[in-house]
Amino acid sequence: MKKKAIVSKCLLGYNCRYDAKPLPPLDLKKLKDYQIIPVCPEVDLLNLPVPRPRLKLVPQKDKLKLLKEDDGKDLTEELRKRSREFLKKIGRVELAVLKSKSPSCAKCDAKVYPSEKSEEELARATGIFTEQVLALNPNVKILTEEEL
Fold this sequence. Notes:
Elements: E1 3-8, E2 34-39, H1 41-45, E3 55-60, E4 63-68, H2 76-90, E5 95-97, E6 110-112, E7 123-125, H3 128-136, E8 141-143
Parallel strand pairs: 1-2, 1-5, 5-8
Antiparallel strand pairs: 3-4, 6-7
């Protein structure tokens, strides 16, 4: 039985990015020994459309929140809950290849903003989905598209 690898759908050529601009698919030769499990947390888990307003990480009360840029709706707990459900359903994961800079999938480089309306960068952080991947799979190897 092959080991499991979660891969961001946008890195596989799926049209699921917030701006509806598809990325060229990754060369998956290095993942030939893995069962690929494609996921876009924002589309598959939150049921958001393509295109959609950007999501932004914003600090509130000493915690990072995932907010919709257009209306400020807080999607943090919904994404955490649905991520845990998804991850428990698929079982143990050994590898995750996730989109850099994404507020959902970033390994450590998602921009943090002072508010959902701001463009000023305060810091960089791990995406909400990636936090859950790490929490439920402590030995998982996380790579970005640049690291694969």
